[in-house]
Amino acid sequence: MTQIGDEALMALFGAAYTAVATGMPFTHYEKLCELLVFANAPNITTKYDDPRALGRFTACIHDYYQGEQTKRLKNATFIGIQMDESTCIAGESHAAICVIYDEPSTGTIFEEYFGLVKLSGWTGRDLYDACSGEFRRRGVDLEKKLASFSGDGCSAVASEKKGVFGFFRKEVNSACYGVHCASHRLALCVKDAGTKRSSPKMLRDAVAAVDTVIRAAHKVFSKSPERWLNYLAVREVIGALTPARTLKVFNATRWSGRFKCIEDLLSQLPEFLSFLCPASTTPPPPPRPAAAPTPPPLRPATALPPPPRPAVPQPAGQPPAVPAGILSSPELAEYYEALLHASPAVRVILLQQLGSQESVDAILKGLSTMFQIACAGLGVPDNVRVQIVNRQPLQESLKAQVSIIDLNIRRTLSQLAQAQQATLPQPPPPPPPPPPPAAPPPMYSSAYATADDSDSDYDPSDTESVVSSECDDDGVDVDPSCGGKPADEAAKFASLHEKLTDFTTLAFTHFLADVLGTTDAMFKLMQASEFKFSDVPGCVEGTKNALHACYVAVEPGEYLTLALSAFFAEMKATGFGSYKGHAIHNVPAHPEAEVHKLVSKYAANLIRHVNERFPDTRFISALALFDPLEYPDVDQPSLVKWGIEKLNVIHEYFTSRSEAKVHTHECHPVISFGQAKAELVGFLVSMQGMKEEASKAHAAYVQYFAEERAVLSQLLDDASLGYEAAHEVAQKVSRNRARPQHHLDVVIQKLWGLRRNVPQLYRLALFVAMIKPTTVNCERVFSMCTVLKTELHTRHSVTSLDQSLFIKLNTSGSVMKEHEALAKAVIAYHSGTKIHLYQSIAAQVENINRDPRVSHMLVH
After folding, report:
1. What is the value of pTM for the model shown?
2. Distance linking the first and last C-alpha atoms of the chain
3. Domain boundary residue, one of 586, 613, 640
4. pLDDT tens per residue, range 98-147
5. Claim to verify: residue 608 and residue 624 sit in the same structural domain
6. 536-566 residue pLDDT tens
7. Domain boundary among 580, 613, 646
8. What sign has the CA pseudo-torsion 156, 157, 159, 160?
9. What is the rounded distance in angstroms from the CA atom of residue 220 to the CA atom of residue 227?
10. Quick one: 742 and 725 in the same domain?
């Protein structure tokens, strides 16, 4: 390994740090080095611009940062652990470990990523060995430091007998406080309220009906791009204003994902129903006025099936009559017949051609009645008719489908020509020739020879794995009269349309959108990295109050939430007869009362499950002793009495843990509660004096959190388009002010200054501060894994992925701020020899050439 100058190494380390901290693909590292050469960085050459050098530099930077964290952990008073497990798409299971600890020299609380460990098993012992082994590998003794362990609540983690939490209590510290992640608990409450066996059957049936329509709606487009293009065409015809969103499917165990699925479906439900209806219902055409003369039929009634009636809202009144002689124009007759019998995408093309082709333009201007008839036959609303003539060509998504559409136009017009020819007197047909021997299976006629182009290279023998009930068949434009698949597809679409227009299912879908939106807001609040134990009671109480006020303590039909209020406003306007122009069915005699029965039962059941999964335990309530915001506004004697009650409850917890006899050594931490009671009066006075400052810190944190969420929502809002809007949002995102601290972190720093006056209560306050109520930091690790493992990256090993995660999650991301740390990493790099680098750093990236099997092949 050649030696290069410190300035050049700093530049290369800065490029490596930038690539990892910003989540760049490793292949971009070479471009960063080229930029350094272009910028005349001192002594830069192209010798170190390959990913192998990036791996060595990253390993060296990671070793420095990890060493600094290990030093802080060894000096910490207490440590709290959060752990979660996830299995990637490749089948590999990893445990993400995060820590919260204090720095005794400053009183600062750190919440950091600790490591990513590959799992060899999924039992409680396997998970415990993986987690504790990582701390032992880094020389961190947990015996006298472990204060809390937070997990997801599964038996392998939460069980006190054979779970990770139980092993930590038995083998490390019996005073360790176990936490079932609050976000996971709230998700389980939402799930149990509608699916648990103890829930009322009416709730379980309603939730199952909504789940069925969501899954069926997802399957409509999941394996058929052609249906998606036709759906976009229908949206183009009716002038949809909401953006088209891909319908999603949820995981049965992830109830937080249901909100996004229902939200996407409801936002475009009118257009989706309009897409389903032409293929699912076939009522007779609307009757024409008897006084108006009608043209003679252009074909026998049995030549084609009755035209499907579109699902878009019909204009008021009957369509205008056809004046005599208008359909005598062969060109217009062909267009009108094609409009009646074409698929939705073909109708858009024909209607545009009817209003834009120069060959028809002159005739169209003098025959406006004909154009109204065509629009009425399609069910185009009045406000859209004027726009269709001047509408721009189809969007880019339909351009790939132009050839298929043209074939369908020719197919339809060829049918019409054959039908018209059949109405004329024909000479007797010649006798058919005898069929040739060993004739092949009959083929479609020339009109359909290329129409089924979605199946032209499709082997029916390959369809055994396709489930017929999933609406996954292609070939939407195949004529059902030929026995093709669309006949079955039409039945599936009709069934889905019927389920979606069922009154109870439709109302409960709107209700779930509202109630899941309420709980989703709580999920977002819990996902704040600074979420502390003191935030849980208020968050839970706020959720219960919102549920009761919105769905229980209201009159039937008088809901204030967004989706339900809009739904009942339309129901009242239409007399509970239609939804967005589509007739609804199974409407009960008292619809508002029946829906309110479902809504109130679900909300009450959800509140009951929240009370069960978030019990107001005496120990958690006693932790209010260390939160100034929980202090009552009373005189000092009453305050002292209140404080003694809280301290006694905490004393009972530590006493019970010491008497449990499940540990193999002395219970830590050792707290002298006699001395703590002597310190209590001064501690209470000091904490009450911090109440105003803590209140201001809490308000600043909540305001910052709300503004941050508002900015993120604006970034994700589809309506926030254009350069000016994007520039405005960018200005908000680039705020220079630092993120405010949580008020409990401010309190701990204040208590650090008083630690000599109240040493025992300060230790207790630190112990309580390590109790992390959620595992959201672990969830953030897995989300970052997905970002790092994109298709532009090479596949990361566990070691290299762990190094990238550590740098990205635990550092500022700024080369200027990390200049001092990078300089120390360069010194460590200089101190190593070539063999040292390969053995202690490069080997950590698990180079495949070091695999014994590969080495064996190389030797031989």
Report:
1. 0.69
2. 28
3. 613
4. 999 999 998 899 999 999 998 888 888 999 999 999 999 999 999 888 99
5. no
6. 888 888 888 889 998 999 999 888 888 999 9
7. 613
8. positive
9. 7
10. yes
